[in-house]
Amino acid sequence: MKHLSHLVNAPPALHYEKVETESFLFVNGPEPIEDYHLADKTNKSIYSGIFGGTATLYYEHNNETGHGLYYGFHFHNRGTTPVTLTLLNNGASVGWTTNCETWRRYYEFSGSGMAYTIAPNASMWLFFTKAASDSDTPSCDGEVRGGARSHTTTFDAEACLIPPTTFDGVWKAHTDGLLELRVLTFATPDLDSFDPLATECIDSQTHEGNTGWSAYAGALKCHMLWRVDDTTPNGNLPVTVNGKVFDNWTTCSTDQQSNVLLTDNIPLTIYYKGEPYTLTHDNIDPRTGAIWSWANWGILYQNEYIIRNNGSRSRTIKFYMKSTATANRYMGTYSPLNGGFKAFPFSDINNWLNGDQVVIQTTVQPDETAIIPFEYVLGGQSFGGVGMYAVVGD
Fold first, then answer.
1. Are residues 92 and 143 in the same domain?
2. pTM for the predicted model, two decimal places
3. How far from chain centre, in Å, is Cα 294?
4. Mean pLDDT, to the nearest integer, of 373-385?
5. Spatial distance between the Cα atoms of 237 and 297, rounded to a whole number of angstroms
6. What is the C-alpha radius of gyration for the chain, rounded to an integer number of angstroms?
7. For residue 352, what pLDDT is reported?
8. DSSP H helical ranges for the chain
9. What is the distance between the alpha carbons of residues 371 and 223, in angstroms, rounded to a whole number?
10. Are 190 and 244 in the same domain?
11. Same domain (yes/no): 133, 243
12. Which of 18, 34, 172, 283 is a plausible cystine mate for 89, CB 3.0–4.6 Å?
C-alpha cells in the first residue's frame, strides 16, 4: 500500500505545450529608435506585412531620439470586399518602471469586441496614446480610429506624443480577411505629410532587436496535478523537472541549472538581408554567430495548477514566485482566483523581487479538487528567469 500511495502521489512533471491556434508578431527591431529611423525624415517604417486571422502583437522600444515621437499601426484593405477587424485585448505603457501597466490594461481592457469594418482601398489606424488620467507617470492605451482614408482621422498630437523613454504594448485582434499592416514611428503630428502606404520598411534586423512572426499564439500552456492526503507533510510540494524531483522550479530562463525548464524555444521567423531565418534557442543568430535567444518577451505562461485532497482534513496551498536574475525589472501575474492582475515590485538596487511573493493561496477541503488558473508574463526590458514553488499546510 505504501508503494501504491507513492505512485498515486507522484510529483507532477513540469511541461509546457505551445498554443498553435493563433499567431504572434514580435516587434522589437530596432529596439532603440533614433532620428534616422523616423518615417517622416527617411520615408521608412518599422514593419510591413500581411495581417489576418487571430494574432497577438507585442512591441517594445526605447525612444532615443532626445525628443517626443509617435507610434502607430496602419491597416489597409487592398482587397475587393470589406474586412472587419475586431480588437480583443489592448494595453500599453511608457517608462522604465511602469511596464506592468501594459499587462494590467491588457487584462482589464474594457473595449473587447470593438469591431471596425474597413472598406476596399480604405485604411485604419491603431494609435499608441497616453491616458489622460496619468499625468505624473504617463501611461498609454492604444486607440482605434477609422476613416475612408487613414490621414483624415482625428489625431490628438498631445495625447499621442511619446517622451524619450522606453515604451511597450500588446494587442490582440481578429480579422475576417487579409489586411496590410504597417508599424510606423514618426516625428510629425501632421499625418498629411506622409503616406503610410508609400513608406519603405527598413531592414530592422541589421539593428539591435528583433522583429518577426511566430506560428504560435504567444502563449505556453501547462497543467500540473498534485495529490495530497493525511500523510502528506507540510512543506514544499515536489515537482519533476527534466526527469528529476525538486521542491521548486524555474521557467522563462536560458540558465542551464538542473531545475530549470528551458521554455524560450518558440520559433520566430525574421528577415535578415532579405532572407527568412527561423530562430530558436537551439540555433545560430545569422548576425552574430552566437546561440540566439529572445527570452520569450511578451509570451503568456498560462498555468493550470490542480490540487486534489484525498485526506480527511482541509489543506492550505500557497504558491510563491521569485526572480532568479538581477535584471528582471518587474513581473506581472494574473489569476481570477486572487482578484485578477497583480504587479510585483522590485525593492533593491539589484532589482530582485521584494522577497518571495505569495501569488496564489487557497484552501482545499477533504475529498475536493481545486483548479487554480494562473498566468504570468516576462515583459520587455528584462531577462532571467521566474522561480516558483508550492507549499502545503494545515
1. yes
2. 0.87
3. 12
4. 75
5. 28
6. 23
7. 40
8. 2-8, 39-42, 100-107, 157-160
9. 10
10. no
11. no
12. 172
